[in-house]
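_Per-residue structure_
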Amino acid sequence: MPTHPQEPDRAASDPDVRVPEGAGPPPREDLPRPGPPRPEAANGEPGPDAAGPTPAEDEYTTAIRELEDRWRRALADLDNLRKRHARELERERAVERSRTAAAFLPVLDNLELALTHAGADPGAIVEGVRAVRDQAVNVLELLGYPRHAETGVPFDPARHEVVGVVQDPDAPPGTVVEVLRPGYGDGERQLRPAAVTVAKRE
């Protein structure tokens, strides 16, 4: 009995034969079956949840954590510096007050000595008080506050305070005629200006 060659699939070779949509050869068992589709971004690339965070995202997260840690450390160091500066400033103030008070101790000693000899010669008492005054003025000058009680100098609003204007033909107009209260210090270190009377301008 003659054998006829197997006739090829007409659906694959004949264009007039239409295969129903969805029909096809059965899946082969020896090939791997596709899994669920991976999420994709708009450009067709795998989405962010496809394979976890990228290396760039991990690098950015690490950098942000390091910056936050450095920021917190800088705040702590600044707070410690502020507290240490406040303590040092208060200590320096205490030292300066002590130094100033110690500078005036000899003045007080001389005043007490003058009071002890109050019954002696009045002229000696006056000389003793004047010496104590000069000693106190010297102490203030050493502390940076020189005394200003000069007359015949031009009026300086930075060093003088006018308390009166007088007519004095022997003094040039605008000069200091009399010092009623001495001033101490200069510029930003001025304790007080000198109270003076000034010659009247014509």
In short: Confidence is low (pLDDT under 50) at residues 1-14. The beta strands are 147-148, 160-166, 176-181, 183-184, 194-199.
